[in-house]
Design brief:
It is built from four helices and two strands. The chain is mainly alpha-helical. Strand 1 and strand 2 form a beta hairpin. Helix 3 runs antiparallel to helix 4. The longest helix is centred in the middle third of the chain and has 25 residues. This is GntR family transcriptional regulator. It comes from Vibrio parahaemolyticus.
């Protein structure tokens, strides 16, 4: 990403203040443990946010937007999930669908 160590270190310190990252002097850092309750809260927040954004997109989207959504969905649904499954292809198509 062409970023030096200082910005990464600062980002990790800020994430540790929010308790997303655990820091240990002279040992490094790692993702903080998450309990099931916290995960459920996170997924519920994501569900509500995604639902709101989808409704807004549908209300404000024009014909070209709708065509883009349908095209990207069609491409995503055509990924061969059986033999020779390619995660990179699926991720790219999923990204365009979102």
């Amino acid at each position: 990403y062409n970023v030096g160590a200082s910005p990464i270190r600062e980002a990790l310190v800020q994430l540790s203040w929010s308790k997303y990252v655990k820091l240990a002097p002279q040992k490094g850092c790692w993702v903080a443990p998450v309990c099931k309750h916290e995960l459920n809260d996170l997924y519920e927040s994501l569900r509500m946010t995604a639902s709101f954004l989808l409704k807004k997109a549908i209300m404000t989207g024009d014909e070209n937007w709708e065509l883009d959504v349908l095209t990207s969905y069609h491409k995503l649904s055509r990924v061969n999930l059986d033999q020779g499954f390619c995660w990179r292809e699926w991720e790219e198509r999923h990204y365009h669908f979102l």
